[in-house]
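@channel sequence for tomorrow's demo:
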Amino acid sequence: MVAAKWKTVIVIVMFLLLMSAPGTAHVKASAPQITPEWTYKVNTEVHAIKVGPNGQYVVAGGKNGRIYYFSWDGRPIWDYLTGGFIASLDIAKDGKNIVAAVGYDTNRDGSPEYGKIIYLDDRKHVLWTYTSQTKEFFSSVSAGQDRIYVGSEGKIIRFSHTGSRISTNLVGVDLPEVDTYGNYLVVSHSPWFYRRDDNEYSKLFLFSGTFLKSTREFDDAVVGTAISEKYYAAVTGLHLDPSGKWTGSGNYYVYLYRPSGEFVWRYKLDAPAFDVDITPTGRVIAVGDTGGNVYVFNEKGYLLWKENLGSPVYAVALSQDGNYLAVGTKDGTVALYRVPGVIQILTDPSDARVYLMESGEYTEIGETPTAFTVLPGTYTVKVAREYYHTKVVEVSVSSGDVVKEYISLPLANGTINVYSNVDGAQVVIDGIPVGKTPLLNYTIPAGDHNVTVRADGFCGEYREEVSINSPAPVSVAARLEPCPAKLEINGPSGAEVYVDGTYYGTAPTSISIQPGSYAVMLKKEGKKDYTTTVSLGPGEIRELTPDMQMDPVYYGIRVAAGIAVLIVLLLLVMTYRKYNFRKSYKELLATIDSVRRENIPEEASEILNGLEGKRRAIEEAYRRGDRGSLSRLREEVAAEVARIKELKGQYRSMKDRISRDIMSLLNQPAAEAPSEGEGSNEK
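structure tokens (generated this afternoon):
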């Protein structure tokens, strides 16, 4: 029975209530299934397990107090009944001897069976036994190079490999879990035993020899530790609170640190952890949790493998060479696995399909970038991507390795789309006809190619050089120029020619124009406008001989305009005649007035009086509008005026002659000067 003094509770009983729901399984890419080398079912919960240095044997301990020894191929060689239950196991550094920490129990006679340390070889020979006489409770054991370390009741006890108790070192953990490597010792709380008043469950202690190097505290109980030459690992899980309830934060991790205290990485687990192990070099780390999951990591924190075994994993152990993993579960399963590796495939370009050769056939794994877990060995991997050359590589993987393969895939084919402004144009690639436009998603080898597009009725052809250097479709947009059409306008002569509103001269004419549909109009004076629509194909010659009809509206307008002009001319003539009539009247009166103002001889007085009589006749004729009389009077007045002018001329001539005679007389010399007082009587 559990001693009342310590009020110790065995975790195994409590976990029966916690393990009803399995943890979440890890999602992995399709890959070869990782199966155990062998499995064996014992009729008890497996609390402790260890594997030989090279996987040559497995030793396991159960709740029933038996130690089981299995050969490399899973055959049970022997088992040993200890009388208690196995809390912890380890293998001595020689790889042959086994040390077990046995919890106390009750003998058949009712007397207490106290904790034991049992040291035996691989042939079941017990080399020595240490039994506690003071109800010491041995919670863990770890075999160092020259010492065996046992966790018990708040202290670490050191034994020699011959069974001598050497020393005791107090630690701050009531029921310690201990692991050692070299001069280092890492101590945490046992996952199996708690006191209700235990408050040290979340602490981890690192010793260098007997010197406490560091203390680290976590959010949850540290239920497992393991140490190597480069790292130490810790896992967190549930603890027992003062009310007797198992509890935790809900976030459980595996941590990796350097002995210097430097944090390396952590990984969140699906369920509370129970055990952890690490290889001496620190290259591989294994974890088991209460959700039935087993995890395998490399030292960089890469998850190499994860599997749900269907039962809480209470114990995990790695071989010293890191090639084998032994697992013990609540349902009594003992299994040995080869530690897998991982193949990572990265390609340029990405999204390539990855295939793995299995049993002579390729199995599709997924698309790059991808990673998949495999057992150690050499594998044939094929990588294929549409439009690219397929590559096949050989990949060798060792336990715990993450092998990265960077594969560059040369482009094999691409696609081309050829469009044209002419549907059905012929497409020629590198001199070979391949189809008609639009040519879509045509597969073409990688490299440079000459593309030609041609069509009947179109002058010339379209040429372009393209480079296929990626799977992305290459597009060619060809534009073909149609051969010009010709429109012959054959009359009527002089008609103005318009095509789509553009003036093209007068008919007859020949117009060179691009193929298409056009509106043609001819205009000519006196003719109705001629309009029509013509459709011309490439190179087509079309003759057009319009029949332009007479325009009656045009001629009606011309006649009306002529009549209007005659009327205007008549009005002008009438106005002009009236104007001349009045002008003649005015001029006649003015002529008579001007004659009267002149100095005329008396001989012309009678004529002048006659002109006054004619004035009255002129005024009377003007009043009557008698153009004939006025014209006659004009002639008469003109004659009378001419007569007066003639008389004036005669009178002037006579006067000039008299003046000359007088001057001549005055200029003759005198015969005798007249005497003073005498005068001349000549006047």
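heads up for whoever presents: The longest helix spans residues 552-597.
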